Amino acid sequence: MALVTLKQHKAVAARLRAERERLGFTEKQIAQLIGIPIEQYQKVEDGQVDPGLFCMARLTACGFDANYIITNERLRPLQEESDLLRRFRELSNKGKSSIFMTLDALERLAPNLQSNIRKNIRSNLDAIRGKFKID
Contact, 51 vs 42, CB < 8 A? Predict the structure, then answer.
């Protein structure tokens, strides 16, 4: 009896790819960092090969959220979330109240706004990375 189904392998592989892309790494860079051939790493991202626990520590050291890769739940906030939280905490009570009122209004007007905002932020970051050739 298999401990992990093919569907679970594919889901882990998709989250691994998403994390790599979020952090702006290439497949080749990650393969080198974890010490495996690029072809082997591509099989990992395709869900054909189990990444194994040994590489999770190395990936975590590179900024990957291993908990997210394995469970699909983030334990630590992304940098943008940390920045937002820091800035929110610096606001006066009136400023915080304004933020909550704005969020409530946006929630009523556009239920899918959160995912659209995240997509726009990510595409803007990708454009900046491309402009400055950040790998």
Answer: no
Compute how many other C-beta atoms are within 10 angstroms of the C-beta atom of residue 114.
12
Tens digit of each residue's pLDDT (9 = 90 or more) over 10-64: 899 999 999 999 989 999 999 998 888 999 999 999 988 887 777 888 888 888 8
- What are the φ and ψ backbone dihedral angles of 52, each rounded to 5 degrees? 80, 155
Residue 39 token pair: 């072809």
* DSSP 8-state code for residue 110: -
d(CA 105, CA 7): 39
Cβ-based neighbour number of residue 99 at 10 Å: 14
Q: Where are the alpha helices (DSSP H) in the chain?
A: 6-23, 27-34, 38-45, 53-61, 66-71, 79-90, 93-109, 113-132
pTM above 0.90, yes or no: no
Dihedral, CA of residue 43, residue 44, residue 49 and residue 54, to nearest 10: 140
